[in-house]
Amino acid sequence: MANQVRQTETSGMVKTATVANYIVERLSAEGIHHCFGVAGDYVFPICDAVDSSAKVKWIGCANELNASYAADGYARIRGAAMLVTTYGVGELSALNGVMGAKAERSLVFHIVGMPSYQNQRLGKIAHHTLGDGVFGNFVDLSADAACCRAIINPQNCVVEMERVIAEARRNNQPAYIAVPSDYALSPVMSAEVKPIVSRSNEVALRKAMAIIAERIENAKSVVAFPAFTILRLGLQKQAQKAVEALGCPFVTTLMEKCVIDEGHPQFAGMYAGAVSDPKTRQIVEGADLVLDLGGVNLNDITTAAYSAQLDISRFITVGLDDVRIEAEVISSVRLADVLTELAKLKPSSAPFRGARQELAPVTGSPSDKITMSALYPRYAAFLRATDTVVLETGSTSLGVAPTILPDGVRVEAQVLWGSIGWATPAAFGIALADPGRRTILITGEGSHQLTANDIGAMGRFGANVIVFVLNNGGYLIERALEENPDWTYNDLAPWNYAELPKALGCADWYTSRVTTLGELADAMKAARASKTGAYIEIIGGKMDMPPILAFAHSRLKENVWRRAINSHTPVMSDNALIE
Ligand SMILES: Cc1ncc(C[n+]2csc(CCOP(=O)(O)OP(=O)(O)O)c2C)c(N)n1
Ligand SMILES: [Mg+2]
């Protein structure tokens, strides 16, 4: 009976005999074909179910934190991901990554194997506990990193899986699913349920659209702000159609870089408060109506230390599940439906045409050392429409942010949560999620040190990522934001980065350590041609920083950054950077 598969007449889903098999099969029906994790005895039944599944492949990671980041990356492309960890030690190691997925709206199903219900009931002293016979004391911690939770048993399995899938989809955030090991092996009990799909309430949608259309009609100037959630939900085409129907300019922050091509004629630039191009700033801050499509996140990073001058009363915010217009909240309205309705509107004036955004010129001669002003235009020239760029927190993301990238390039970054180390495993998950595109990881060496061991997993599972590691002798972004750039806490152990792939089992990868522009050009060519992964260590200057960081550095005397992050000033009115 154990592995027997039968068709259910209830939800129409393929259902297996055990709870563990049912969970794996049900999640594969959500489009998930890889499961990231680290095995452990309490979670063996789930691991076995994955390993014996024809639909889901087990992707063993070096540790649970890496696995959680990889799952986040995968979910950003596929819409959902599966992460499997063991009780206590495993799930707690994954917490940072799952919490990040919650912050950044990435749907990770986090499945945790618990000690058997029998042992829990008897209060036995067991490994991975505090040795007090108490169980369930980690559930709240893990569940706080999710938008919903379920503790599964054979009776509730079918119903609870539908509930958490629907809730996680509604919010596009993680779900926590804990399964005691004996229950995981028990036969699942069937139940009459149908999958729940979140839909807009027709009346609410019509009401929201009537107000939006009227506000657009009466506005002298409109700007659209397609949010990062458009990427998470795979709504890029719908967002582009909506923006084209409106004919208005659109801008992005670093969080949604390239959500619509930067070569699009309506692109009005990257918005980052006081460090925006003045024309972009005027278009956003002077607009009569800001149409926020998906809930842009105006945090200290995206507004350049809260330097935005935005009047929230001019915003219409279309969330994932509601529309906000000043004090009014219209619930049960889905973002996808609003985009479809917006695409039916007609522009009242000629469409906006911004200045054509050209790639920056590539300058310098082959024997020159690699400076940041020479490096970022080279990334832009290197990238192709079929590339997905994964950006790490640090000086590199601030360098790439204002660099215009070719049409078709997709960018993923963890701007709000900003946990360094994220990008390396996230690139791994992204590469597995979409092998049809080339994944390009751009990271600083300090961040890379946190999670570099999953380069090994990339090689093992054939994820042919091109990795650029900027080795600038420490934490440049932190040196730049401190009066004293020489604090020893910004120094690092000097690794031989270019030798890592070989040591980590990627002997067939192309690797190179480059110090001049000529060497970089050769390495980029070889990396692009490689059929395996490629790894390029770029030697940069200890205090050579990209323009946005240099700007913040030059204003250190005013202590802009510290004032901004420690103040209680509202986002919308602080003008710290330009005072
Ligand atoms: C998990 C975590 N720990 C610490 C930090 C603080 N932090 C932000 S950027 C950074 C340094 C990044 O250095 P590196 O990757 O070498 O990039 P660089 O700025 O030098 O180019 C640190 C330590 C963080 N964001 N996340
Ligand atoms: Mg560095």
Condensed summary:
The chain is of the alpha/beta class and 579 residues long. The strands form 5 sheets. It has a 6-stranded parallel β-sheet with strand order 4-3-5-6-8-7, sandwiched between helices.
Low-pLDDT stretches are: 1-16, 568-579
Helix content: 25-40%
Distance between the termini: 72 Å
Sheet/helix structural class: alpha/beta
Number of helices: 23
Ligand types: thiamine diphosphate, magnesium ion
Outline:
globular
Largest sheet: number of strands, sense, barrel closure: 6 strands, parallel
Tell me the strand order in the biggest sheet.
Answer: 4-3-5-6-8-7
Task: Output mean pLDDT.
Answer: 93
Rg, Å, rounded: 25 Å
Number of strands: 21
Beta-strand portion reads 15-25%
Features:
579 residues, disordered N terminus, binds magnesium ion, 17% strand, 6-stranded parallel β-sheet, 23 helices, globular
Written description of the protein model:
With 579 residues, this protein is an alpha/beta fold. The chain has 23 helices and 21 strands. The strands form 5 sheets. Strands 4-3-5-6-8-7 form a 6-stranded parallel sheet, with helices on both faces. Bound molecules: thiamine diphosphate and magnesium ion (MG).
SSE layout and pairing:
Layout: E1 5-7, E2 14-16, H1 19-28, E3 34-37, H2 44-51, E4 57-60, H3 64-78, E5 81-86, H4 89-103, E6 108-114, H5 117-122, H6 139-144, E7 148-151, H7 157-171, E8 175-180, H8 181-184, H9 202-218, E9 222-226, H10 228-232, H11 236-246, E10 250-252, E11 267-270, H12 278-285, E12 289-293, E13 315-318, E14 322-325, E15 328-331, H13 335-342, H14 372-382, E16 387-391, H15 395-400, E17 410-413, H16 423-433, E18 438-444, H17 445-451, H18 455-460, E19 466-471, H19 476-480, H20 500-503, E20 510-514, H21 517-529, E21 534-539, H22 547-554, H23 560-566
Parallel strand pairs: 3-4, 3-5, 5-6, 6-8, 7-8, 9-12, 10-11, 12-13, 16-17, 16-18, 18-19, 19-21, 20-21
Antiparallel strand pairs: 1-2, 13-14, 14-15
